[in-house]
Amino acid sequence: MKNFVWLIPLLFGLNVILAGCDERSRQPANQATPSPSATPSATKMSDSDLEKAVRAKLESDVALKEAKLNVDANADKNEVTISGTVRSQDMRNKAVDLAKSAHSGLTINDKIDVKPAA
Questions:
Q1: Domains along the chain?
Q2: What would the pLDDT profile of 16-30 be if each residue is shown by its tens digit?
Q3: Which long-range contacts (CB under 8 A, 24 or more apart) does 73-78 make?
């Protein structure tokens, strides 16, 4: 019995060392780290971020940039309302298509008026 007295502190010490080295116990199991390649659709956008994304798409077209369309976004509903006036139905359709391409699954409320130039 005397010969095994040193075994108890040794086993206790090994247990403490192994428990301290267990990385799984230090990290939350449900923690999700966003990848750098995450798309905007995978992350939650604010209303202003969604508005900026749609405005950037609309302003990429010279004719639509001149039309000065109004953009109102509701990120919670993934919805954008576009209003203003354009000179043709083609410009109206292009504005809606460009806005849809700003964010996946986006619903567009088209309140654009078409008034040809006089």
A1: 41-114 (3.30.1340)
A2: 776 766 655 555 555
A3: 73/47, 73/48, 74/47, 74/50, 75/44, 75/45, 75/46, 75/47, 75/49, 75/50, 77/107, 78/103, 78/105, 78/106, 78/107
Evaluate if residue 41 carries a pLDDT over 50: no
* Averaged pLDDT, 95-110: 91
- For residue 9, what pLDDT band results from cuts at 50, 70 and 90? confident
- Distance between CA 48 and CA 68 in Å, rounded? 17
